Amino acid sequence: MEETIVKIIAYGIRDDEKPYLDQWSKDKGIEVKAVAELLDESTVDQAKGYDGAVVYQQKPYTAEVLDKLASFGIKSLSLRNVGVDNVDADAIKRNDIKVTNVPAYSPNAIAELAATQLMRLLRRTNTFDCKIANGDLRWAPDIADELDQMTVGVIATGRIGRAAINIYKGFGAKIIAYDIFHNPELEKEGIYVDTLDELYAQADVISLHSPATKENEHMFNDEAFGKMKDGVFIINPARGALVDTDALIRALDSGKVAGAALDVYEDEVGIFNTDFGSFDAIPDERLKNLIKRENVLVTPHIAFFTKTAVKNMVQFALNSNVNLIEKGSDESQVKF
Ligand code: NAD
């Protein structure tokens, strides 16, 4: 057998990721050991003898685990996702571990779900599905809205926001946007408003695509909902922390918000991507309150979960890991 120079261990590999990992390993002739378990104190010893580690998990990458990796000579850590907030920064710096992420695996994956859910809300498909299942084939009173008659306010025009704008434009919607940084191409189109208040006042649909920071936590609170148009539709495939769930529930109760599509939820960790066996067993009353509503579409953080995105997450991370090991750097390296 041909001798390989680099050896990588990949933690938390799911069944849907494995074929892309195997294909990459075969194409590159590089050995990759796939481990189903996440990287923690109980699994870190499996990394002994490898040159780099590829990982993806919501649970913390602790100082103890990172110290151990470094003691095995592993100084190359590649995350298959964007966020690095669960990585112990002090341990990374202390051990001189180089870390990469995958900043954009498929912006369209997220934008397509946003548009899908918006169209479902506008055409009241959830309500019709329920009516039809009960033998009620009448139209009224569930009359739809047409997107080409509406103004979509896009908050944040980064990679995903721009992909969403392209799709909404395809439906003929009028687009307005708000971002703290103006994209030069979109600036030429004159779509930016100067303040969130202007966007709230004009938008029939608000599509949220900004990162969550300390400053914008619960940016959609009672005050913000109060500034929005009556009957606004809210699309959030960005971050749960951006929306004050209690305020959203109040806005849904009052009719201020006509419908909401949520792919993220502020208390989603430990709940999304879990099978509770029955609806009643979901251990979160606020979430159940939202799911039960016909004008709310909850999905368990699935926007990224497409074949293209999963393939890119796996293979971009493996490429970055090899670059770190062989060249000592990679364009996706994260500064700590
Ligand atoms: P990006 O870095 O390409 O763009 C982010 C944009 O947000 C930038 O234009 C930036 O200027 C702008 N921004 C930052 N702070 C802002 C603020 N306070 N107000 C307005 N604009 C602000 O990011 P992206 O790849 O487009 O990701 C957007 C969001 O989507 C992130 O929250 C990300 O976590 C989320 N996301 C969700 C999924 C999913 O599966 N649901 C998958 C990937 C990303």
UniProtKB/TrEMBL annotation:
Alphabetical keyword list: NAD, Oxidoreductase
Span of domain D-isomer specific 2-hydroxyacid dehydrogenase NAD-binding: 117-303
Keyword Oxidoreductase: yes
Entry superkingdom: Bacteria
D-isomer specific 2-hydroxyacid dehydrogenase catalytic domain boundaries: 13-334
Pfam families: 2-Hacid_dh, 2-Hacid_dh_C
Protein name: D-lactate dehydrogenase
Organismal lineage: Bacteria, Bacillati, Bacillota, Bacilli, Lactobacillales
